[in-house]
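Tokens for chain A. Residues wanted.
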């Protein structure tokens, strides 16, 4: 961008393109509509609601997804075991033979 163009924008002589305004405001919606309202503040990605995510937070997401999947599988296995236990006779239903 030419410095004289920036001066004209600043004076209001010409209106900058919408994408230029979005870039200057750090609005990531200029790249994709899904990101409208998201900005970059220093090293953080900031949501429209004010949530901040740094690079390390973003990198840990795949690991967390794997941990959640493993936990769900373990819960499903435990539920299956619990259902099998429910099918077992309880001591109060036992008949004790007396001799």
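Reply:
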């Amino acid at each position: 961008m030419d410095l004289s163009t920036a001066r004209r924008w600043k004076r209001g002589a010409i209106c900058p393109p919408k994408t230029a305004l979005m870039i200057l405001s750090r609005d990531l919606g200029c790249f994709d509509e899904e990101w409208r309202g998201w900005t970059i503040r220093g090293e953080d990605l900031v949501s429209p609601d004010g949530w901040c995510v740094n690079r390390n937070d973003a990198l840990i997401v795949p690991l967390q997804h794997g941990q959640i999947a493993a936990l769900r599988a373990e819960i499903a296995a435990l539920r299956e075991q619990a259902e099998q236990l429910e099918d077992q006779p309880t001591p109060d239903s036992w008949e004790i033979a007396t001799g």
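Residues 3-53 form one domain. The CA atoms of residues 71 and 77 lie 10 Å apart.
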